[in-house]
Design a protein that fits this description.
about 60 residues; mainly alpha; 2 helices; about 0% strand; globular
Length: about 60
């Protein structure tokens, strides 16, 4: 499963999310040791966050 990293590694202080991949620091740390089911869940969460960014819910 591909990593969501897009090499834009800046954490947003307000949201606690990476500005590039929309993951939390805990999700970033866990990625390399996570199984595929956990990685799929992280991807689902990222997609939900991305929809929030598009609709203006996340700064």
């Amino acid at each position: 499963m591909p990593s969501p990293c897009v090499s834009v590694c800046r954490m947003d202080e307000r949201s606690g999310l990476c500005q590039g991949c929309l993951r939390t620091i805990d999700e970033i740390r866990a990625w390399s040791t996570s199984d595929d089911a956990t990685r799929r869940q992280i991807w689902t969460t990222i997609e939900q966050r991305a929809r929030g960014v598009v609709s203006g819910q996340i700064a």
